[in-house]
Amino acid sequence: MAKAYWISLYRAVHDADKLAAYAKLAGPAIQAGGGRFLVRGMPSKTYEAGLDQRTVVIEFDSVEQAIATHDSAGYKAALDALGDGVERDMRIVEGA
Q1: Which of 28, 36, 73, 90 sits at a 20 to 30 Å CA gap from 80?
Q2: By residue range, what is the domain housing residue 87?
Q3: pTM here?
Q4: Which tens digit of pLDDT belongs to each residue from 61-93?
């Protein structure tokens, strides 16, 4: 079974306090769902049309596990805390 990768790119942070509240809840919810943080931070270097945005990559054992984690009550609480605190792009991608 192919691994899955949850990728978030933060276009803008509008409220750092909401982001901090989200992080306190999201990290444990994601780890409880089997997620392993591989990348968290700003790019060291960007190329082509790359944007200088905070990037998070989380590995899961399957797409189903990543989706179940996203849809869990624990992660929903994190999203509720985040509210409109950030503008981001998030996707789940199956590994090669």
Answers
A1: 36
A2: 4-94
A3: 0.92
A4: 999 999 999 999 999 999 999 999 999 999 999
